[in-house]
From TrEMBL:
Residues 1-23 form the signal peptide. This is TonB-dependent receptor. It is found in: Cell outer membrane. Residues 277-633 form the TonB-dependent receptor-like beta-barrel domain. SUPFAM superfamilies: Porins. PANTHER family: TONB-DEPENDENT OUTER MEMBRANE RECEPTOR (PTHR30069), TONB-DEPENDENT RECEPTOR NMB0964-RELATED (PTHR30069:SF40). The keyword Metal-binding does not apply. Belongs to the TonB-dependent receptor family. Pfam families: Plug (PF07715), TonB_dep_Rec_b-barrel (PF00593). It is a multi-pass membrane protein. The keyword rRNA processing does not apply. Its main location: membrane.
Length: 664
C-alpha cells in the first residue's frame, strides 16, 4: 500500500506541474450517425458521446471494447486482449449495433464474446456512442444503442495539399509494437485517402494469478493473450458542385489468442467495399439525396492450439441505405429513407464441412425509416420511426423452419429550456428486434466459450419500451447532465446454462468438455442512471470531470440478468498549459454481487488509475506530439463483471505506453 501511495503522489505531482502558456482551440464536431447531423449537446433522441482528437488518441486500445470501456454508460466484454465488445447500459451482443461510417461492420462479434469486432480504431478519426433505443433507426440490432467508427475512408472534401497523421507506439505490459497512419490528398476534383495499421503484441502481464482464487500455474502473465492485427484501406471520391460519389476498399487480418485452458486462437480475415454518394438539391422539396452501399466478405477460423482448424465462420453481406433529407418544411427538418440488408452466414466444421454450431442461413431485411425535428418556440420536439421486415432462411437440407418478423419501432423526444444553458430532455421509445440466426437455430458446440448452444426456432419478436429523462447544463465553465432510464423488454432472449456437461455431440457426459446453454425468453427490466459534471473541460489551466453510472437488469421471476456491469464512479483531473496536456483518470468499480441464476462469482471492487502526459511542438511543417501513459498505476487485480472469463482472465497489470504522433 505504501508503494501505491507513493506512486499516486508522484503521478499527481507530474500531472500538475505548470508549464508555459499557449492558447488552444476546440473544434465542434457533429454526430454523423444521426440523420440530422446535430452537435453532441443538441441530441434529443439519444444521449450521445463523441470521441475525437487527442481524447480519442489517448483512449485507443487493442479492441473497441477496451477503447470505450470507461465511457459513461459503457462497459467492455473483456474476452482477452483480442476480443472485447462495448456493452451499453448492460445490453450487449446483438442489442448493440456496431457501424463503420454509418454502415454495419457485418462481422460476427454479436454472436459470441470471443469474436472480435472487425473495425480498427487506431486509424479512426471519430467514434460516436448513441445510448438508448433511438439508435435503432439504423436497425433492429440497436435496442441497447450503437457505436459508429468514423475513419474518413471515403473523403467528402478536397484537400488542397497532402495532409495526414503517423503514429508509432510501444506498450511495455505486452511488448506491443504498433504503428498507424492516414493520408488525405486530392488530384483535381478527386479526393484520395489511404490508411493502415499494424499491431503485434505478446501475452500481457498480470499482477498475480490468472485464477481469482490464487491457484493454478498461470501467474504473472496471461497465456495465449497475444494479438497480431494488420489493416489497409484506400478510398477515392469525385467531388463536384452537385455533390460527390466515392468508393473505398479495406482488408483486415487479425490473429488473436483465446485465454482459456484449450489455448485455441482465431484467424480472422475481412475484405470490405463501400460506396458513398450524395446529390444536392435532387428535387425541389429535398436538400440532399444520400446513398450508401457496403459489401463485406468476412471469415474467421477457430483453431486449436496446434493450429488445426476446428470451425469456419463466414458472413457475406450486402447493405444499402438511401435517404432524402430536408431542412425546412414549414419549420420541420428531417430525413426519410430505405435500408436493405442481405447476409449469408455459416459456421461449418473445418474437418467435415458440415454445420457445426449454426446452420447455413440466409437473412434479409428491408426497412423504411423517418426522423423529423421542429422548434415550437423555445421547445424542440423530435421523433423517428422504422418499419422493418426480417426473414431468416436456413438451408433446405437442415429441415428447419423459415421465420419472418415484422418489426415496428419509434422514438419521441423533447428538449425544454428552463434557463440560460439549462434544459430538460425526455424521450419515449418502442423498439422491436428479431431473434438472430444463432438464437433460432444453434445446435452444437462452441469451442472458445465451451458451451453447447441449443437454439429455439419458435422464439418470438423481442419488444422493448424505454423511457428516458435528462436534466443538463451545456454552456459555461461548469457543465453537467443527469440521465435516468427504464427499459421494459418482453420476450427478452437470453442464454440459460443448466450446468449439464455434454460431449461435442451433445450427449450427456459428466466429464464432457461443454456445458449446455439454451436460448430462452422472459420479461426483462433494465433500469439505471448516469451523471456527469465538468469544469473547464477544454480550456487552459486546470480541469476536472466527475461521473457515475449504474444499471441493473432483471428477468421476471429469475433474478438478475447475466454479466451485469458494476456501479462505477470516476474522475478525470487535467492541466493544460501551452504545449503540455496532462491528465490523471480514476475509475472505481464497486463489488458486483447481483448475480444471475447460473453465476457464482462475485466480482470484487477495484480502482483503476491512469496517467497521461503529452507534449506537442511544431517541427518544420508538421506538428509532433510525444505521449506517455501509465495504465493501472496502482497495479490492481482488475476483473470486469461483464466478462465471461472474469474468474480466470484479469486485466493487464501496471504498464507504460510511450509513442510519438506526427500530424501535417
Amino acid at each position: 500500500m505504501s508503494l501505491q501511495r507513493t506512486l499516486l503522489a508522484a503521478a499527481v505531482c507530474a500531472a500538475f506541474t505548470p508549464f508555459g502558456a499557449q492558447a488552444q482551440s476546440t473544434t465542434t464536431v457533429t454526430v454523423s450517425a444521426n440523420p440530422l447531423g446535430k452537435e453532441e449537446s443538441l441530441q434529443i433522441l439519444s444521449p450521445t458521446k463523441i470521441l475525437s482528437g487527442s481524447e480519442l488518441r489517448s483512449k485507443i486500445g487493442s479492441s473497441l471494447g477496451e477503447t470505450l470501456g470507461s465511457e459513461l454508460g459503457v462497459s467492455a466484454s473483456g474476452f482477452g486482449a483480442g476480443a472485447s465488445r462495448p456493452i451499453i447500459r448492460g445490453l450487449e451482443g446483438p442489442r448493440v449495433k456496431i457501424l463503420q461510417n454509418g454502415m454495419s461492420v457485418a462481422d460476427v462479434s454479436g454472436l459470441s464474446n470471443d469474436h472480435a469486432v472487425a473495425s480498427e480504431t487506431a486509424s479512426s478519426q471519430q467514434i460516436e456512442i448513441l445510448r438508448g433505443p433511438a439508435a435503432l433507426l439504423y436497425g433492429s440490432g440497436a435496442i441497447g444503442g450503437l457505436v459508429n467508427v468514423v475513419d474518413g475512408r471515403i473523403p467528402t472534401s478536397l484537400s488542397k495539399q497532402l495532409n495526414g497523421e503517423f503514429e508509432v507506439k510501444y506498450v511495455g505490459v505486452n511488448s506491443e509494437k504498433s504503428g498507424s497512419f492516414f493520408l488525405d490528398g486530392s488530384i483535381n476534383d478527386i479526393a484520395l485517402h489511404l490508411d493502415g495499421n499494424s499491431r503485434d503484441t505478446k501475452d500481457y502481464k498480470i499482477p498475480g494469478f490468472a485464477n481469482a482464487n490464487g491457484e493454478g500455474d498461470m501467474k504473472g502473465r496471461l497465456s495465449n493473450s497475444f494479438t497480431r492485427e494488420h489493416s489497409m484501406g484506400f478510398g477515392a471520391t469525385l467531388i463536384k458542385s452537385w455533390g460527390h460519389i466515392g468508393a473505398s476498399v479495406q482488408n483486415m487480418q487479425d490473429v488473436y489468442g483465446i485465454p482459456t485452458e484449450e489455448m485455441s486462437y482465431i484467424d480472422l480475415d475481412q475484405t470490405r467495399f463501400d460506396i458513398d454518394a450524395a446529390v444536392f438539391k435532387p428535387f425541389f422539396v429535398f436538400d440532399t439525396l444520400k446513398f450508401k452501399l457496403g459489401s463485406t466478405d468476412y471469415q474467421h477460423t477457430e483453431k486449436l492450439q496446434d493450429g488445426t482448424p476446428a470451425t469456419d465462420f463466414k458472413n457475406r453481406t450486402l447493405e444499402t441505405r438511401t435517404s432524402l433529407s430536408h431542412t425546412n418544411w414549414n419549420g420541420w427538418e428531417g430525413s426519410l429513407g430505405l435500408q436493405t440488408e442481405h447476409a449469408n452466414f455459416s459456421a461449418l466444421s473445418a474437418e467435415t464441412g458440415r454445420a457445426d454450431t449454426v446452420p447455413t442461413t440466409r437473412s434479409t431485411s428491408n426497412a423504411i425509416f423517418l426522423v423529423e425535428q421542429k422548434n415550437f418556440g423555445a421547445i424542440t420536439l423530435s421523433g423517428g420511426g422504422r418499419i422493418e421486415k426480417v426473414k431468416r432462411q436456413p438451408q433446405a437440407s437442415f429441415n428447419l423452419p423459415q421465420r419472418e418478423f415484422n418489426l415496428h419501432s419509434f422514438s419521441l423526444g423533447g428538449l425544454i429550456p428552463v434557463a440560460n444553458g439549462y434544459a430538460i430532455v425526455s424521450s419515449l421509445s418502442s423498439a422491436q428486434r428479431a431473434p438472430t440466426t444463432e438464437e433460432l437455430y444453434s445446435n452444437g458446440p462452441h469451442e472458445s466459450t465451451l458451451t453447447f448452444d441449443i437454439g429455439d426456432n419458435r422464439l418470438k419478436t423481442e419488444k422493448s419500451r424505454n423511457i428516458e429523462f435528462s436534466v443538463q447544463k451545456t454552456s459555461g465553465l461548469v457543465q453537467w447532465k443527469i440521465n435516468a432510464f427504464v427499459n421494459k423488454v418482453d420476450n427478452y432472449v437470453f442464454g440459460e446454462i443448466d450446468g449439464l456437461r455434454v460431449d461435442e455431440e451433445g450427449e450427456h457426459d459428466p466429464e464432457g468438455e461443454f456445458t449446455q446453454r439454451f436460448w430462452k425468453q422472459a420479461k426483462a427490466t433494465i433500469r439505471g442512471g448516469e451523471a456527469e459534471i465538468s469544469y473547464n473541460q477544454f480550456g487552459e489551466g486546470f480541469s476536472i470531470r466527475g461521473f457515475a453510472d449504474t444499471s441493473r437488469g432483471t428477468l421476471a421471476a429469475r433474478g438478475s440478468l447475466p454479466l451485469q456491469p458494476a456501479n462505477r464512479v470516476g474522475a478525470d483531473i487535467g492541466y493544460r498549459s501551452g504545449a503540455w496536456r496532462n491528465t490523471i483518470s480514476v475509475l472505481h468499480a464497486q463489488k458486483q454481487d447481483r448475480l444471475a441464476a447460473s453465476e457464482t462469482f462475485v466480482t470484487p471492487s477495484f480502482t483503476k488509475v491512469d496517467l497521461n502526459v503529452t507534449y506537442t511542438h511544431p517541427y518544420m511543417n508538421t506538428q509532433v506530439t510525444w505521449f506517455a501513459q501509465i495504465k493501472n498505476l496502482l497495479n490492481q487485480d482488475i476483473r470486469l463483471a461483464t466478462s465471461v472469463l472474469r474468474e480466470t482472465v484479469p486485466q493487464p497489470m501496471r504498464g507504460l505506453i510511450a509513442g510519438v504522433r506526427v500530424n501535417f
